[in-house]
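Thread: Newbie trying to understand structure tokens

Hi all, I'm a second-year student working on a class project, and my supervisor (Dr. K.) asked me to get a predicted structure for one chain before our next meeting. I've only ever worked with sequences, so writing a 3D structure as a token string is new to me. If someone could post the tokens and maybe explain what I'm looking at, I'd be very grateful. Here's the chain:
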Amino acid sequence: MLEADKFMIKEQVKYLSSHATYHIFDGATREHIGTAEEKIGTFTKLMRWFVSKSLMPTRVEVREKPDDALVFTIRRGFYIFRSRVEVHTADGELLGYFKSKVFTIGGGFHVYDKDNNHFAEVKGNLIGFKYRVLTPDHKVELGRVSKEWGGIAKELFTSADTYMIDMNDDLKDDPMAKMLVLAAALATDMIFKAETKGTMNLGGD
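---
Reply by user tm_fold:
Sure, no problem. This is what the structure looks like when written as tokens:
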């Protein structure tokens, strides 16, 4: 799955569902190459009907086709003011983590590697699916996310989304870095978007 340089992410429409599932396609060939699905316990599913999902813990498993082998997981526990979202390899080793910004109008988050080095920052239009994953000095664009039209009926009458992730060519031979960028894009939609619902931009420090 990580051989692709462009990913198309399509949310699966699920009515009256308490967890999300996304299909991952090769953005160039449109081949179905993986899935990203929330895996939460019965108690958490129940509580989501009464408590905002943005405050509840979650775990997202990213698997590749055709054998559904685990590639990485995205995890967040309970939080109050500032969430920490971790990315783990298929073997359970910490690959990196994301920390949401505090006291900013638009929200956003920073990306760190497993050694606590500041790897990237996510900035741009969150609601409109037009944001970038940048190096900390903002000089290099590691990835770009843009909205992909998914059909007028689905877009107007459901909350399902389709978007594209373009990877920097320099990440072609760096699967770990590519994994962090892909995880950051998925976390933006599946986790951080819920935390910053009602805002229009990812910005600030």
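A couple of things are worth pointing out once you decode it. Residues 197-205 have pLDDT under 50 and may be disordered. DSSP finds three helices and twelve strands in the chain. Feel free to ask follow-ups in this thread.
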